Amino acid sequence: MTSNQFMFLLFSAVIVIFSILTVTSRRILRAATFLLFVLVATAGLYFLLKYNYLAAIQLALYAGGIVVLIIFSILLTSHINERLPTSGLMKKLPAALIAILGAALCISVILQYNFIGAVGTTEPTNVKLIGESLINYGKYGYALPFEVISVLLLAAMIGAIILAKKRKD
Q1: CA–CA separation, 150 vs 145, rounded Å?
Q2: Is 33 helix (H, G, I), strand (E, B) or coil?
Q3: DSSP state, 159?
Q4: Which of 7-27 are b and which e, b meaning 16 or more Cβ less than 10 Å from the residue's Cβ?
Q5: Does CATH place domain 3-83+124-164 in 1.20.120.1200?
Q6: Which of 32, 39, 44, 50 lies in disulfide reach of 63, CB 3.0 to 4.6 Å?
């Protein structure tokens, strides 16, 4: 096993474990911390794939900015020791079914795809090419992954605000 394979397995394990911990944790602050580990490990995968710019953006913007914003919003609007109520069986069963179906779909698509190794030709990089890649939605563009992650983190932010909002019982 090469060092790249080992690092890929390590980052993948960290992402899977901390993703599960993020969605199953009953404490909001711990869930936000677990999300930070997921985002940092994702940046590690980007570094491993030699997408250095995307990895730097992942660390600076998402892992650095968004998670800190979520943690501060939790600390300012909620009690730090507050625990979320446990979900009933009527919520756990559909959630588990959807998660299993989603995982089966992802695994089947990955197994059916014919991965072809890239030829080692590289083009010279300049500032104009990087700028065009940032706003491009095409094959080598970065705009679509940023938009998808932005929507995901917006949903996480809305969820954190709703959970942190005090109830009037």
Answers
A1: 8
A2: helix
A3: H
A4: ebeebeebbeebbebbeebee
A5: yes
A6: 39
> Using the 8-state DSSP alphabet, how is residue 10 labeled?
H
Phi, psi of 99, rounded to the nearest 5 degrees: -65, -40
* Two structure tokens written together for 94: 């559909």
Least confident of 7-21, 28-42, 95-109, 114-128: 114-128
Q: What does the mean pLDDT of the chain come to?
A: 81
Contact 46, 54 (CB under 8 A): yes
Task: Name the 3-class secondary structure at 25.
Answer: coil
SS3 content of the chain, % helix, strand, coil (to 5): 75, 0, 25
Q: CA 130, CA 20: separation in Å to the nearest integer?
A: 35
pTM over 0.85: no
Kindly give the interhelix angle for 3-24 and 28-48, rounded to the nearest 10 degrees: 160
Which residue in this structure is represented by tokens 């919520």?
Answer: 91
